[in-house]
Amino acid sequence: MPLWVDLVAVGVGAVQGAMFAARMKESRLDWLGVAIIGVVVGLGGGLIRDLLLNEVPATLRSDWYLVVAIASALLGMGLLQVFERLNPLIIGLDALTIGLFGAIGTSKALSAGLPLIPSVFVGVVSAVGGSVLRDIMLNLPVALMHVGSLYAVAAAAGTVVLAVAVALGVPVGLAAGACVVITTATRLLSVRYGWSLPEQRALSTWPTWRRPFRKRDS
């Protein structure tokens, strides 16, 4: 995977993370806090990916990762001051981040010799890892786990296509591009039309089909 592709994913993730954090007025984050959230989103997915692959994190093998993450986080803060209504842009960047990290994670796992299903798992974890860390640091409900958010489903859809396509002999660049498009589109469509997985209900709310027990008249 070319270095510039990984850096693009880091930059997009850091911009999105900083813009997301800057909108959280109730958290009362200062500039450093917003920048840290941006860096975590930009680098978190790749860091988790490399730890799963038992590799030295790419973040520590090049000066460019931290430089790009910090610069992009500062850019994200600046963008929020320029535009007033950035929610659609933040959602779009969030979806693109998931697609990029999913494609990179799955591609690296396949190149490391992992089978298809573990490679998809690495890709999905890489895709959602930065967002999960972001929500934990901001003390928010983890986006991956609440209704109305197809983070993991969108990432799985794209990474499965990538892994299967590579197994069928499709060039990895083309397969990765398809992964990014499918993941991003699935995530954006789920937001647009309110797609979600069924909500877990408490057992007490399930309908009871048994008739109430009656004592027989003696």
- Helix content range: 55-70%
Spans with pLDDT under 50 lasting ≥5 residues?
none
Along the chain, the helix and strand elements come as HHHHHHH
| Major sheet | none
Rounded to an integer in angstroms, the radius of gyration calculated over CA atoms is: 20 Å
Count structural domains. Answer: 1
Total strands: the figure is: 0
Per DSSP, what share of the residues sits in E-state strands of 2 or more residues? under 5%
Summing up helix and strand content along with how strands pair, one would put the structural category as: mainly alpha
Name the shape in a single word: globular
SS field, number of helical segments: 7
Q: State the end-to-end CA separation.
A: 81 Å
Structural overview:
This protein has 218 residues and is mainly α. It has one domain. 67% of the residues lie in helices and 0% in strands. It has helices spanning 3-22, 31-52, 64-82, 87-111, 116-137, 151-167, 172-193. The chain starts with a helix and ends in a 25-residue tail after the last helix. The model has no long low-confidence stretch (mean pLDDT 85).
Q: Notable features of this structure?
A:
7 helices; mainly alpha
Quick structural gist:
This protein is mainly alpha-helical.
Task: Give the arrangement of secondary structure elements.
Blueprint lengths: L2 H20 L8 H22 L11 H19 L4 H25 L4 H22 L13 H17 L4 H22 L25
